[in-house]
């Protein structure tokens, strides 16, 4: 059960400026969207089961509800608006990402917030079905969903945007920067190694458990997952034993199974990377898995 941090009546009682109506509207919209998400939770699980584990969708719904519940705590930031925002959506966690990068920024737009889903979400129409289930087109009329390829979206929408929210590679970021008009803002969410460091005095059991969770969250597809785990040499063997025990307890299967931790890789480009890695890696360095399934 999630309890709003600030009751809507409390918020409105403190707001006496010309933005009262606007602020009231965004709080109501957040509450309505929260209700719609909870009402359509089963459908959302069904849609997202094509690309991610059931547990991850549950996580997304919980985080989305918490965010919408607490949107009123930031009402002072919604008084200043811009005409247009363009958003490149991340490849993972489509519902929660849309709340963070689409819904919340839409409260700060006069004209349009234009959203470009990534290729996987376009190809499988994941994003479109989520928006349809939540009635986004009707409830958020200042949000426009565009299914253009990255290059076309960049050329058409970036030059006229006051703010661009981009998640992706550096080479695409540089192209966006070159097209931004003077005075506009680029909010860039890049990628990194995000290493986990396990010190000599760490609680090894907890460190191994948490490292396994972080690395295999969302079947290991999440861009925030660690690309490296750095362990003190004095405890590396014990850590690895605990880590492998955690890995071996992960449930592998299809995403329609609610208990599955790791499922099929939906993006062909990522699958090819893994196949190349297995092909090129010394087999002696593979200490778990490494078998290409049917």
TrEMBL record:
Organism, as annotated: Panagrolaimus superbus
One GO molecular-function entry: succinate-semialdehyde dehydrogenase (NAD+) activity
Aldehyde dehydrogenase domain span: 159-290
Keyword Plastid: no
Keywords assigned: Membrane, Oxidoreductase, Transmembrane, Transmembrane helix
Pfam families with a match to the protein in the record: Aldedh
Transmembrane helix listed as a keyword: yes
Protein name per its UniProtKB record: Aldehyde dehydrogenase domain-containing protein
InterPro entries given in the database record: Ald_DH/histidinol_DH (IPR016161), Ald_DH_C (IPR016163), Ald_DH_CS_CYS (IPR016160), Ald_DH_N (IPR016162), Aldehyde_DH_dom (IPR015590), GABD/Sad-like (IPR047110)
Domain of life: Eukaryota
PROSITE patterns with a match to the protein in the record: ALDEHYDE_DEHYDR_CYS
TM region(s), chain numbering: 95-115
């Amino acid at each position: 059960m999630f309890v709003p941090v600030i009751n809507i009546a409390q918020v409105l009682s403190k707001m006496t400026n010309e933005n009262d109506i606007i602020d009231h509207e965004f709080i109501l919209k957040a509450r309505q969207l929260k209700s719609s998400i909870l009402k359509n939770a089963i459908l959302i699980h069904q849609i997202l089961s094509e690309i991610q584990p059931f547990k991850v969708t549950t996580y997304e719904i919980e985080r989305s509800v918490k965010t919408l519940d607490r949107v009123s705590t930031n009402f002072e930031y919604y008084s200043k608006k811009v005409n247009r925002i363009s958003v490149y959506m991340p490849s993972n966690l489509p519902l929660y990402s849309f709340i963070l990068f689409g819904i919340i920024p839409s409260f700060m737009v006069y004209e349009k917030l234009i959203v470009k889903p990534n290729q996987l979400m376009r190809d499988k129409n994941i994003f479109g079905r989520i928006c349809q289930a939540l009635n986004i087109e009707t409830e958020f009329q200042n949000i426009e969903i565009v299914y253009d390829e990255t290059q076309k979206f960049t050329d058409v929408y970036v030059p006229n945007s006051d703010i661009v929210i981009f998640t992706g590679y550096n080479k695409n970021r540089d192209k966006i920067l070159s097209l931004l008009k003077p005075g506009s803002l680029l909010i860039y969410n890049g990628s990194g190694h995000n290493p986990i460091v396990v010190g000599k005095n760490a609680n090894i059991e907890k460190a191994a458990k948490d490292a396994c969770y972080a690395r295999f969250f969302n079947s290991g597809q999440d861009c925030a997952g660690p690309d490296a785990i750095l362990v003190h040499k004095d405890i590396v063997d014990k850590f690895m034993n605990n880590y492998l025990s955690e890995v071996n307890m992960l449930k592998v299967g299809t995403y329609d199974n609610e208990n599955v931790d790791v499922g099929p890789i939906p993006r062909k480009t990522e699958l090819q990377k893994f196949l190349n890695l297995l092909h090129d890696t010394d087999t002696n360095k593979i200490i778990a898995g490494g078998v290409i399934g049917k």
